[in-house]
Design goal:
- This protein is 36% helix and 4% strand.
- The chain is mainly alpha-helical.
- The protein has a domain at 3-202 and 569-578: Serine Threonine Protein Phosphatase 5, Tetratricopeptide repeat.
- The strands form three sheets. Strands 1-3 form a two-stranded antiparallel ribbon.
- Helix 7 (184-201) packs antiparallel against helix 8 (215-235), helix 8 (215-235) runs antiparallel to helix 9 (248-264) and helix 9 (248-264) runs antiparallel to helix 16.
- The chain is globular and about 70 Å long.
- 49% of the residues are buried.
Length: 588
């Protein structure tokens, strides 16, 4: 691992989330701003909210817990989808401690320090009405402030559950600094209300999707928050994280309502050019998403004008796996081309080689996992290097280590002319229409109101892009290896669809947590890889069946995630000392 590559990221994260050893809510948001000289014009308001257009804030909904220092991978490393073989995930292994929560002010497991940035948003709300211009001139920025406050509280909701809901920039002597934790469903209600306000004030136009946020991004986030809380309350009923007055249907209906509004806008569609074997991959390889109907919000980089991602190369690192790889569990989730799971489909040819394993599978398999026959690198002169070249040297050096063997291909463009060793200018996708369709289908299924018509306007669109058969509710093939055998076939298949469509985009732990699914998916499990016999290196251990088992010695009993504790992060002990009204989360 080349640790110098993480330094810029660490500095950036510290700047956003640094946690003070005294109370985090009593900092000035901007040193030179005073109420008398600022917030008087629309331009002042725009300038102020510009500070929240950072990658760290937009990605808060995707990275609620442990992600090492590499969030640019989309990072499913805190789940059963992928691993970083250089470090055993302490969340999944059940090895976290409260004392580690305040390591130099930065928490790898979540950050109470987000309250600092929330205070900056609250300062805006305390002062924006001083603007002397008509409200219509600046309502966009009021809507943006509502959105940013919502996304930050959503992050905290996922990390900690019950949290204080504070909407003013409190002074150091304010009695509200000693607030108790508000119940999670009250917080969820407030987040949803914030997003109602955001949607009301933000423009309903699509624009280029990269400049400023719009109504539809607010509704996408609202549908996600509502689905999260609705399913959390449903599946955590009766455990230590249960809500005392669950209102599952209320949240699920809100998820459907918000998702439907985006779907009915007619502004977005699934990107496709009619080529199932490459369209899914190409959706993540574009240099400009302004005309892509699937992308709701994205970030543009351009080295020629000095706007770049200084985190060491988002997509460049995929060319060298750097210890990151996908799991056999994820690979097994992809259906065969007949629409049947590998456990029963006659098309599944086995695991002897990756080429055999990928044969006759959902095309998203090889567009997510680097597969022989596909381009690994394309030189500046146009020479194509097949993935066979990578697998020939795999696990022979730290840059080319992939503990499970399954190399990440999704979100990677093999055209090396676009990648820079230290400064990457490949765009980042923050939100896409596929997420809306998956939320809609899942919420309807959880409500028990899902119809074939609902499937046809959601799941079918995702499968059509890759040439896969539609999901037919009345004719779902039984899978003896469903992840959730006690749940209905349609819920299992919608969860599968979500997994394969969103793999590597950072949503998997969020899903496992809200489904209370760690007992089925994490506890006692190991991140197994492909058949070790197909590569020459024996650097990583192999299990009794011949599959790579990179954590064989570290996980003799599999992951030891603590069901009664690890779904939420610990409240920092320093905060409990400062405010005795804060109670600790279960199990800590």
């Amino acid at each position: 691992m080349k640790y110098f590559k993480i330094i810029p990221l660490f500095i950036a994260l510290m700047a956003i989330f640094s946690a003070c050893q005294k109370d985090l809510l009593d900092k000035k948001p901007l040193d030179k701003i005073t109420e008398a000289s600022f917030f008087l014009t629309t331009n002042d308001l725009q300038t102020y909210v510009n500070q929240f257009y950072t990658d760290q804030i937009f990605r808060l909904r995707r990275t609620p817990t442990y992600t090492a220092f590499f969030p640019w991978f989309g990072d499913d490393n805190n789940s059963d989808n992928s691993i970083d073989v250089s470090v055993l995930n302490p969340l999944l292994a059940g090895q976290r401690t409260i004392s580690y929560q305040n390591n130099a002010g930065y928490s790898t497991y979540g950050s109470w320090g987000v309250f600092t940035t929330i205070r900056q948003v609250n300062y805006f709300f305390d002062n924006y009405k001083k603007c002397k211009e008509p409200f219509n001139n600046y309502k966009q920025y009021v809507g943006e402030a509502h959105f940013f406050r919502a996304i930050m509280y959503y992050y905290l909701l996922q990390c900690y559950g019950d949290i204080p809901w504070i909407t003013k920039a409190l002074a150091p002597t304010s009695p509200e600094l000693l607030n108790q934790r508000d119940k999670r469903n009250i917080v969820a209600d407030n987040i949803i209300a914030q997003l109602d306000s955001a949607a009301m004030y933000l423009p309903a136009t699509k624009d280029n999707g990269a400049s400023r946020i719009n109504k539809w991004l607010a509704l996408l986030l609202q549908s996600e928050v509502a689905l999260y809380e609705g399913t959390w309350e449903k599946y955590h009923a009766g455990d230590p994280f249960a809500v005392s007055n669950p209102q599952t249907a209320k949240y699920l209906n809100k998820a459907v309502e918000a998702a439907s509004a985006v779907m009915n806008s007619g502004l977005y569609s699934i990107y496709t050019k009619g080529n199932p074997e490459i369209d899914f991959a190409n959706c993540f390889r574009m240099r400009d998403y302004s005309a892509n109907g699937e992308i709701i919000f994205w970030k543009q980089f351009n080295n020629t004008v000095g706007v770049n991602n200084s985190y060491g190369g988002f997509n460049y690192l995929h060319e060298r796996p750097y210890n990151k790889s996908l799991t056999k569990s994820l690979a097994d989730a992809f259906l065969c081309k007949d629409g049947k799971p590998i456990s029963v489909s006659p098309l599944f040819a086995g695991y002897n080689t990756l080429s055999v394993e990928a044969k006759d599978r959902d095309p998203r398999f090889h567009q997510t996992i680097g597969t022989p026959g596909d381009a690994w690198k394309i030189d500046a002169n146009g020479t194509i290097h097949d993935y066979n070249e990578l697998y020939a040297i795999l696990n022979n050096g730290s840059e080319y280590n992939a503990g499970t063997g399954y190399v990440i291909a999704k979100q990677y463009d093999p055209q090396m002319i676009y990648h820079k060793t230290n400064y990457e200018d490949t765009p980042w996708i923050y939100a896409r229409y596929a997420e809306v369709l998956l939320t809609y289908a899942e919420a309807k299924a959880e409500l028990g109101t899902l119809t074939q018509e609902d499937i046809d306007k959601s799941i079918k669109k995702l499968r059509d892009r890759v040439g896969m058969p539609n999901l037919v509710i009345s004719n779902i093939t039984n899978d003896p290896k469903w992840d959730f055998p006690t749940l209905s076939p349609v819920i299992n298949e919608i969860r599968r669809e979500r997994r394969v469509e969103l793999a590597t985009e950072g949503f998997r732990w969020q899903d496992i947590a809200r489904w209370a699914g760690a007992d089925e998916l994490i506890v006692g499990k190991k991140p197994i890889g492909f058949k070790a016999s197909q590569i020459t290196s024996t650097f990583f251990p192999v299990d009794a069946n011949g599959f790579l088992d990179p954590f064989k010695s570290a996980l003799t009993n599999g992951y030891e995630f603590k069901i009664g504790r690890d779904y939420l992060d610990p409240i920092p002990q320093s905060e409990i000392v400062l405010n005795p009204k804060l109670t600790q989360n279960p199990g800590w």
